[in-house]
Amino acid sequence: MVVGESYNLFVKSTDIALAKDFSGTISVLNQLKATILSIRCEEILCSMVLDIDGFEVEAIVPKSSAEAMALNVGDSVIAFIKASEVAVC
Predict the structure, then answer these.
(1) CA 48, CA 13: separation in Å to the nearest integer?
(2) Residue at 16 is within a domain
(3) Is residue 62 part of a domain?
(4) Residue-wise DSSP of 42-70
(5) Contact 56/76 with Cβ under 8 angstroms?
(6) Residue 39 maps to which CATH number?
(7) Per-residue pLDDT tens digits for 43-88
């Protein structure tokens, strides 16, 4: 990698974990502030579109987790992405 060059980053939507009202320490260093733009739930999973610094990113979480966290459109969350799950191109 070269400093100053542009790169594309790829992350599977299922590799993004969400937290609401998070405080504390965690080993995941990629912690991105996000706002939920939309939520679409099926029987088992929910697809959420997040706004992260003007970029739209999809996160897929278990429906039971989304319900337990009472996630709604407009909520502020933290998106956690493990460094080992990021592909750089």
Answers:
(1) 9
(2) yes
(3) yes
(4) -SSEEEEEEEETTEEEEEEEEHHHHHHTT
(5) no
(6) 2.40.50.100
(7) 999 999 999 999 999 999 999 999 999 999 999 999 999 999 999 9
